[in-house]
Amino acid sequence: MLSARTLPVLCALSLISLACTPPTGSQQVGPDDEVQAVVVRVAGALDGTGGRIGPSDIVVVNGIITGILPAGRGRGTVYDLGDAIALPGLIDTHVHLGWHFNREGRTQSAEVQETPQESVLYGAENALVTLRSGVTTVQSIGAPVDKELRDAFARGILPGPRVLTSLSAVGAWLGDDEAAYRERVQELAAEGADVIKIFASASIRDGGPPTLSQAQLDATCGTAAALGLRTVAHAHGPESARRVAMAGCTTVEHGALLDRATLELLAERDVFYDPNIDLVFRNYFENQDRFLGVGNYTEEGFDQMRAAVPKALAAFREALTVPGLRVVFGTDAVAGAHGRNYEELVYRVQTGGQPAMDAIVSATSLAAASLGMSDEIGTLAAGMRADIIATQGNPADDISALGAVSFVMIDGRVARRDP
Ligand SMILES: [Zn+2]
């Protein structure tokens, strides 16, 4: 990831928003060219760490926020967003960017052959609706198609969120030998994975028992850490999550059946918890006919998911009371759920009882921390990448305002601006 902080911070300190030398590694600007600043003028802002800011001009130069000034003080091309409230672009730490309904309206499967070209365009469509909904970074958990999407969006022409991807996953299919787990992690790192996805438990549709031993998890997360890669582990039940925590993995995904002792262990071991408690289930139920009959999407599997909903909600509520536990935003968005990511946050607040500001932090600075990107995204401050969204209404007062996104900027480029 680029590190472009130092110079823009100096620019901001001197309150000069024009003619700051652009950070290296960004678009081509000659040393004598004047860099045009863009000013996002808003009635207020949430900084992503729990802070509220009054009427502001957020000054952006070359894709980086160079300063946040009182409204009216910024110089440059002004996007006056009226009474809108700005906040950092949302970060969804768990999506499946490529999952889509195919030309027959069913979730993709081997039954309907698709060309790679078709598949990548479905992924691009998912990415566009995700970005326009206000999610500027996703961690896709993960398929090979993510790589081309990630790299294409990073070129800055095709609109899409910043993508981090696991490309594939590590799981019990590798066999008993720990060496196979080390090798697979090394392969994925070489292929360009940003993160390693691990199936440490079975699906909730199969009851979610552990599938990997402590030694296998130690090998996987230890090898990844040595390579500088984070690890996210699908783990539904307490035993699988406990092994994940003891192995030093980065994040527990889902954790629908976790008890207090396990949640406390996650806090103690500094493991992030990414519960997915609403959107993924509700989307499956709403689109049941489009999934039923594919893989483990059986009537029984759907019954298991229905039974899991109240358990996942209970685990989430318990998690909010565990001191020091870092609960991050992730949806597990599959076909049908892309672009509706924020609905998970609305549920967490309105049904789960999380304070709205905490939910926003979980999807901004805290999510960035879980991705190891705190220095770049998730906070509105000088030196951060200009991932800025704006809503009609203040989501810290009414979380449903996240459904009224009217402006989206990523890396300083405007991806949405409603009249
Ligand atoms: Zn998932």
Describe the structure.
Residues 1-33 have low confidence and may be disordered. The strands form 4 sheets. A 6-stranded mixed beta sheet has the order 3-2-7-15-16-17, with no helix packed on it. A 4-stranded mixed beta sheet has the order 5-4-1-6. It has 13 helices and 17 strands. It folds into 2 domains: 6-88 and 378-417, Roll (Urease, subunit C, domain 1); 90-370, Metal-dependent hydrolases (TIM Barrel, Alpha-Beta Barrel). It is α/β, with parallel strands linked by helices. Zinc ion (ZN) binds at residues 94, 96, 141, 332. Residues 94, 96, 141, 332 line the site of zinc ion.
Key descriptive features of the protein:
419 residues, alpha/beta, Urease, subunit C, domain 1, TIM Barrel, 2 domains, 6-stranded mixed β-sheet, 4-stranded mixed β-sheet, 17 strands, 32% helix, disordered N terminus, binds zinc ion
